[in-house]
Input
Amino acid sequence: MRGRIVIGSALTAAVLTMVAAVISGIVAADQISAKDGTIARGFLVVAALAITAFAWWITMQPSDRPEALLFGLMGGWLLNVSSWTGHSFVGRLFSDVTPVATLVDLVLWAIVSLGLVALLSRTSTTVSR
Output
């Protein structure tokens, strides 16, 4: 596992998902609906994670392990400032209680990240496993 992949993908995921949060905030203000902003954030975060996963996947060497990318994507959740308030994904659709929303965000983020890494592992010939 190369540290460059973990750190680089964590920073990329954090920045792209923070941009997604800003865009979803604009959507929420425009629509005067926090729910619409949260739904928009959900789609944008999935897109940001997919872009991050693909961009870092194509830079991986055959000797690199896919777990490095998964750790990086999860590190992106930790580095995302919105994560600590439950505003990093769609947790606010399920609960307005911050710890519950944060836990929902973490679990869904992990599921999406694991799914992306598994999909890339199964379909890519770039990195042999």
Summary: The chain has a mean pLDDT of 88.
